[in-house]
């Protein structure tokens, strides 16, 4: 950088000395001062463009590419989350259909048991109905538990993938520091 600025600096210094001597120089080395000033301005602008404009342009272009890459990555993550959400909705709907079938089946079994046991005492009818209802509730509870486990597994996998991509060493250090500070404060 200093080599390209040297001619314009030397020219400026020469012009400064000539004006300090009290002479009003209208020409330097036989060339009018306006020509020297224009040459000096052109050299200054060329140096400015070469050392400032080009690197800044490249930096802006690189930043724009980084932003575009992050946008594409966010779109991919969004699509992944939507697929997971659709999968969870599908599984939930399937489990709800199974639950409804279990309920219907339980009702049918309860009615059949009532018809078969109509001759028995009222307490036998109550007992069979109660057992049927409890079986339905256990199956519903088991189906819901299975749904919760599947949803938790999918959520954990998704979160683990997102966290492994998004959290860097600085974030891990910051989280560790915050946790230690909270533990100290709670004592």
Short description:
With 187 residues, the protein is mainly alpha-helical. It is 89% helix and 2% strand. The radius of gyration is 41 Å and the shape is rod-shaped.
Labels describing this entry:
disordered N terminus, mainly alpha, 187 residues, 89% helix, 2 domains, single chain
Provide structural commentary:
The protein has helices at 2-20, 33-116, 122-166, 169-186; strands spanning 27-28, 31-32. The protein has 187 residues and is mostly helical. The chain folds into 2 domains: 1-58, no CATH class; 78-168. Residues 1-6 and 16-23 have low confidence and may be disordered.
Number of domains: 2
Percent in strands: under 5%
Uncertain runs are 1-6, 16-23
Distance between the termini: 59 Å
* Strand numbers in spatial order across the main sheet: 1-2
Largest beta-sheet details: 2 strands, antiparallel
User: Based on CA inertia axes, which overall geometry fits?
Assistant: rod-shaped
Number of extended strands:
2
Query: Order of helices and strands, N to C?
Result: HEEHHH
**What do the pLDDT scores average to?**
82
Topology of helices and strands:
Layout: H1 2-20, E1 27-28, E2 31-32, H2 33-116, H3 122-166, H4 169-186
Antiparallel strand pairs: 1-2
Helix pairs in contact: 1-2, 2-3
């Amino acid at each position: 950088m200093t080599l390209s600025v040297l001619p314009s600096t030397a020219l400026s210094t020469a012009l400064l000395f000539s004006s300090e001597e009290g002479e009003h120089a209208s020409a330097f080395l036989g060339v009018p001062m306006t020509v020297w000033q224009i040459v000096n301005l052109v050299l200054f602008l060329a140096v400015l463009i070469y050392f400032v404009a080009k690197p800044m342009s490249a930096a802006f272009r690189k930043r724009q590419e980084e932003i575009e890459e992050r946008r594409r990555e966010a779109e991919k993550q969004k699509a992944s989350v939507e697929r997971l959400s659709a999968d969870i909705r599908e599984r939930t709907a399937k489990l709800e259909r199974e639950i409804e079938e279990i309920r219907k089946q339980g009702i049918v079994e309860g009615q059949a048991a009532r018809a078969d046991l109509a001759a028995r005492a009222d307490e036998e009818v109550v007992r069979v109905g109660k057992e049927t209802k409890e079986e339905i509730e256990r199956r519903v509870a088991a189906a819901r538990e299975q749904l919760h486990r599947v949803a938790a597994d999918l959520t954990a996998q998704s979160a683990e993938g997102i966290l492994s991509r998004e959290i860097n060493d600085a974030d891990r250090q910051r989280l560790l520091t915050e946790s230690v500070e909270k533990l100290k404060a709670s004592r």
